Amino acid sequence: MQVFFEKIREKLIFKIIPDKNDKDRNQKLGEHSQFMYRTLDGSEFPDVHPDRLALVALLNTLPFVSDSLNFGWPVSDRFKQATKIVSRIDFTFIDGKVEPIHRCDTGRHALSFSGGADSTAALAVMPHSSEPVFMLRSKRKSRTLYDSHAAHESCRQLSKLGFNINIIESDFEYLRDPIGFPTDLSVSTPAILIAESRGFESIAFGTILESAYGTSGEKFREYSNSSHYRLWNRMFESVGLGYSLPIAGVSEVGSSLICKIHPIGRFHQSCIRGKWEDPCNKCWKCFRKETLMAALTNTRLSPISVSMIKSSKEVKRRLIDDKPIKHEGVLAFSLNNIQGGGPVVDSLRNLVRAKEIDTDWMRHWYPKSLDLIDHDYRDFTISKLNELIGEMNMDQIDALESWENHNHEEREKRLDSFKSVLSLA
Ligand SMILES: [Zn+2]
Asked: Kind of pairing, strands 2-8 and 68-71?
């Protein structure tokens, strides 16, 4: 694959030319051969260091590249060295001398911000001078469900509170077919691109414990030993940016608690289909949110949750086809902490082991995640986390670190029984 870029006034455009091997390797490579970034106020797109342009190109093309990626511009030796960590790909660059870019010393940090509960919780525990960077998804006819209204409103409310919100539009998700982010960190590419002009030292993500430490899936993993962390921490460092995960030690339960307690928490919305303060109440995000909020306010399960289980195709599919269910532990926490729902919900409680497993640790912060927080504001964030949700105790840390949830015969039996109760509902 070859990649080029050009800047035209308010736009920065990347063009890609896949070769035959790329298309053979990845059927998901769409018809689109370019992606762009655009400022919303029509101002000229700021200058970006060549190494950071290369990191952005890498974040959006890596899954589609078969064996070689050719950049149509020169980069520094430091960036070239860093790319060696991706051993399956041969990287080539145009010749030319480029000085590496070093981390600045402004005390200003960015957050890749989506408007959802997790990134709002991350913002709540970062210094007040931190700047959210929101990626506005370009509209196309092929995308009908996504609605940016709620996220826009969330940005507007935060800026009224004094936050400097940066919004950059991009269409990189159309590179994929079906539409989606090429890599989970692609969403931070607008922040990388404006980091130099805004003087950001680091970029933070609202990655939560379930994603970092694997507990949304089958087994706890030590995130800092993972290939994901080693790759991207190294690549961000090579372009003079810190890679920071302030709430990697906070579960989805904890991030919702933070949003519930902290004043900025009410300016978030998980659902990306409904309007502001009017979620669709049909999607998987709405289901999880509605159920978890009921558990955190100690009320009974709402009729909305029950009806989503019975009649939302999307919710049913996620409950039945995903083995285990994504974030199953959070669902176990929720269903253990609320009453009611009738036979269908009792059967779901049984499937997710709500009454059997220990999920109390999800309310607190996992202190071993401190190294994942940028050193410049680590102490600040730790004290915020302690103040808002407190640290896990030793027993809770044990319960987290021994997390396992495999799909075995017993689970299949429980699933069959859930399916049959659901079909009668
Ligand atoms: Zn929804």
From this structure: parallel
pTM score > 0.85 for this model? yes
- Listed by start position, the domains of the chain span 280-360+406-424
CA distances from 159 to 118, 154, 269 (A): 18, 9, 16
CA of 146 to the centre of ligand 1 (A): 10
Q: Which residues surround ligand 1, an ion (CB under 5 A)?
A: 271, 273, 279-280, 283, 286
**290-348 pLDDT per residue, tens:** 999 999 997 889 889 999 999 999 999 999 999 999 899 999 999 999 999 999 999 99
Ligand 1 center–CA 78 separation, angstroms: 44
Query: How far away, in angstroms, is 246 Cα from ligand 1 center?
Result: 26
Contacts of 9 (CB under 8 A, 6+ apart): 44, 45
Rounded to whole angstroms, the Cα distance separating 186 from 209 reads 19
Write out the two tokens for 32: 């689109």
pLDDT of 374-403, one tens digit each?
A: 999 999 999 999 999 999 999 999 999 999
What is the distance in A from the centroid of ligand 1 to the CA of 251?
Answer: 20
182 with 30: CB under 8 angstroms? Answer: no
CA of 282 to the centre of ligand 1 (A): 5
How remote is the CA of residue 151 from the centroid of ligand 1, in Å?
13
